[in-house]
Amino acid sequence: MNGFLLSILIWLPILGSIGVLMAGAQRPVMAKGLALVISAGTFLLGLSLFFSFDTTTAAMQFVEQRPWIEVLNIQYYLGVDGFSAPLILLTLFFGVLVVIAGWRSIQKNVNQYMAAFLIMEGLMIGVFSALDGLLFYMFFEAMLIPMFLVIGIWGGPRRVYATIKFFLYTFLGSVFMLIGLIYLYIQSGSWDILAWHALPLDFTAQKWLFVGFLAAFAVKIPMFPVHTWLPDAHVEAPTGGSVILAAIMLKIGGYGFIRFSLPITPDASAALDWLVISLSLIAIVYIGFVALAQQDMKKLIAYSSISHMGFVTLGLFIAFGIYRNTGGISGAALGVEGAMVQMVSHGFISGALFLTVGVLYDRVHSRMIKDYGGVANTMPWFAAFAVLFLMANSGLPGTSGFVGEFMVILSSFQANFWFAFLAGLTLILGAAYNLWLVKRVIFGKIANHRVENLQDINGREAFILGTLAVAVLFFGLWPQPLVDMLQVSVDHLLQHIVQSKVL
Amino acid sequence: MNGAQMLLAAPEFWVLVMACVIMLVDLFLREERRGIIHMLAMLTLVFAGIITMRGDYLADGITTATAFKGAFVRDSMGDVLKLFSFVTLGLIFTYSKFYLRSFNMFRSDFYTLSLFALLGVMLLISANSLVMIYLGLELISLSVYALVAFNRDSPRGSEAAMKYFVLGSMASGMLLYGMSMVYGATGSLGLSEIAASVSSQGGSNLLLVFGLVFVVVGIAFKFGVVPFHMWIPDVYEGAPVATTLLISSIPKLAAFAMAFRFLQSGLGDLHVHWQGMLQIMALLSIIVGNLAAIMQTNIKRMLAYSTISHMGFVLLGLLPGTAFGFGASMYYVIVYALMSTAAFGMVIMLSSRGIEAEHLGDFKGLNQRNPFYAAIMGIVMFSMAGVPPMVGFFAKWMVIKAAIDAGLLWIAIVAVIFAVMGAFYYLRVIKYMYFDEPENEKAITAPVDFGAALTLNGIMIIGLGIFTSSLIEICLASFSAL
């Protein structure tokens, strides 16, 4: 079973989507039911990834390796370690939630909607588990197709602009990575990512490879200044699309840095860490201010996502500075672990926030802050959840949002005081835009008759938000299971990247 | 000339005989029984495929055999290209039957001319001497000129045929001129003797290099790469879609074979010279093709410019002159023929009684009219844009690797940037199909065989992507002698 687990997790949703499509547009209930069964089944199967995960080794687990295109040495090679396993679990979790979240709000072509999300789920798991460069790239790019269609078909008024921008931006970034991957293949004669980790490369080659990877992952995560596609895509996407985009797809950028940039080009990463760190700090501070100025709730959350993803890149790239200052990897390990915790936690929080906005949008059909006010009076349960998630978003201790940010800020002190200072500003800025949003939307007097007639959340919505609330609080209070999964892999990565690869 | 050598050309003889038989049978058929012609043509292809696949003309361990005093060569590259020509032409016939019927053009001439064009393609693929190259080339061209003007009442068709004829004759003239210089410099017509002579006198003979320039022009015209691309948009647009289908697919397979045989087998020692020329043309084609396609609102013209950019990518694979590069190009050209056939097949499907669905707007809301065919068109468009897991992606990365192998990293970078720009116009088709409301609610009807062929074509495009390994292996193995 464990020998095929990853394949099952990838292909069950993708092949299952054919069944969902066959249900036809005329039988939405059947399509939805089938999609729910498939995603829930995949989730349950995937739990064994957590329970049989060996936290004592940094080696790849659940490995599947068979030849695919033998003449070019391309393999169907899957495996997970402490970095990919949590992200796969996150994907499986959201795979179920988006199906439930789209239950009522999607009316048009329900079967295609559900099938698109199932395919996306399978492909994202593929991205996190692929250990062959070309296989990774296949999943990485193929993922764009369902997302492109989801935004374009079920999105808002400017959906065509947003979705084409999303597609071309990401596509442009990733073709540079493709050239890098081909270069690595020419150098090593293999597509095995782990073999690339060990491949000695001179500094110039590393630098160009680093730039190629940066082009792909900086767009994906997204980093300032290539973040502009994200607000558009988020605003126009249907709720489910925004959730997957924020909760999972952005993480692929961070995962890419961990899997490709750092271990394959450690010397270039060390030499160019100032670039990534400055861009991260700009994202944290400047985008934080931008978030403050938003009129549209989804845009606000989108900008806050960019700002939070700045912590991920910061946590990853301060490792070199800390190693230079302290000569050991334990301080750097805190930063990298913080980055990973931040990714998982941001997945829960941003997903939850987009679902929260989705709840309001389903009722009022507006995302503008000015159309709301005093929602707490008519939707008390909803307000409780919304406030919890927004607090978590601003990094309140006790929620998962606090843990990752705190770990990153703490470790960045060892690199440079000013990094920590600037990163710490987010606690003020985050609190400002989140609390101000709470004030304008949730509290105060009832703004208009549409708010007055609002119905509180129903059982289905309560289930989704409740599950997420449990997750946010659980990882806030006891992040240990996650850190356990990470620890060995983080140490392994850091020991690897502090060694020079230049011959 | 002994029988065993004649046997090498058995598929060619078979197609020739059948083309004549079909012409004669038509004389004795009443109009309403013309379906028989279609069946005969399909049978021709099936048996041509079977004859080609019987490899017993080769003794064990030999992969290449020549006939007709070395003018005709039979090898695995040729066989693979021929087999794919049969498959593609089979699809084309199936799509065309529906088109010709609904446009009242269902005459047997279409089949005879197409089969003669196929014969030209086969000869060109197997050509190993200058005479045979010219023979194959002209056989294709003359059949296709007539096919472009097949709808004789259409002024656009006649104009396109005229343009094609004038430009095509000029290109043939250039090629002949180049050939005469090559002949003058080497004293022989056979490519093997030319190769021997070139390698003995080295690559510095000015007459040879001069001849090479004109040969490259002739090849470039056949591919339709910039700056010899002017005929493509006009001909694609003016010709009936059935003919466009034909022009855009199998002659490209032949053009690739011709480029390989002439440039590598014959003038391989002039690699430095032709690499430089192909490099410029590849780059220009990728740039001009992708940029111009963005501006088009007519899908036939859009696909024409997209062809130009695809042929630029095919040239990228020829640059390094290695087995991998030629294998990559061959793979690309086969994949391209399948994609282009499917795309024009969709155009035919949307055409209704006498009106060609040539505007992009005709694709509006296709997903609501028929989700299945919209998905097929979607697969084709993503494949042309080079998005995995479609087969077009594998073709693209292989030629890009070939360019990097040739030390032309910057060309690879420019190529991928323009490939991203190119993705825009493919995405626009998807946008019309999926994001817009239909203007025309009429259900889409197509005969069973048409639907089956299109489904098969779509499955090939996605299936050859995921299970791509055997085709890549075959293509690369074809050049293992290099």
Quick recap:
The complex is a heterodimer of chains A (503) and B (482). Chain A is mainly α.
Description:
- The complex is a heterodimer of chains A (503) and B (482).
- By secondary structure, chain A is mainly alpha-helical.
- Helices cover 77% and strands 3% of the residues of chain A.
- Chain A is built from 22 helices and two strands.
- With 482 residues, chain B is mostly helical.
- In chain B, 75% of the residues lie in helices and 1% in strands.
- In chain B, a hairpin with a 4-residue loop joins strand 1 and strand 2.
- The relative contact order of chain B is 0.10.
- The mean pLDDT of chain B is 89.
Category from helices, strands and their pairing of chain A: mainly alpha
Query: Count of DSSP E strands of chain A?
Result: 2
Terminal Cα span of chain A: 42 Å
Strands of the widest sheet of chain A, in order across it, are: 1-2
Radius of gyration of chain B: 21 Å
Low-confidence stretches of chain B: none
**What is the topology, as strand order, of the major beta sheet of chain B?**
1-2
* Helix proportion range of chain A: over 70%
**Average of per-residue pLDDT values of chain B:** 89
**How would you spell out the order of helices and strands of chain A?**
HHEEHHHHHHHHHHHHHHHHHHHH
Q: Report the total helices of chain A.
A: 22
Oligomer: heterodimer
Number of helices of chain B: 21
Tags for this model:
heterodimer; A: mainly alpha; 2 strands; B: 482 residues; two-stranded antiparallel sheet; 75% helix; 1% strand
Helix and strand topology:
The complex is a heterodimer of chains A (503) and B (482).
Chain A: H1 5-22, H2 28-51, E1 61-69, E2 74-80, H3 84-105, H4 110-129, H5 133-142, H6 144-154, H7 159-188, H8 193-198, H9 203-220, H10 229-236, H11 239-264, H12 266-271, H13 273-292, H14 297-326, H15 330-364, H16 375-378, H17 380-393, H18 400-415, H19 417-442, H20 449-452, H21 459-477, H22 480-497
Antiparallel strand pairs in A: 1-2
Chain B: H1 3-8, H2 10-27, H3 35-53, E1 65-67, E2 72-74, H4 76-102, H5 108-126, H6 130-148, H7 155-186, H8 191-201, H9 206-223, H10 231-238, H11 241-248, H12 250-266, H13 271-294, H14 299-318, H15 323-350, H16 366-369, H17 371-385, H18 391-405, H19 409-435, H20 448-466, H21 469-477
Antiparallel strand pairs in B: 1-2
Helix pairs in contact in B: 2-3, 2-5, 3-4, 4-5, 4-11, 4-12, 4-15, 4-20, 5-6, 5-12, 6-7, 7-8, 7-9, 7-10, 8-12, 9-12, 9-13, 10-14, 11-15, 12-15, 13-14, 13-19, 14-15, 14-18, 14-19, 15-17, 15-18, 15-20, 15-21, 17-19, 17-20, 18-19, 18-20
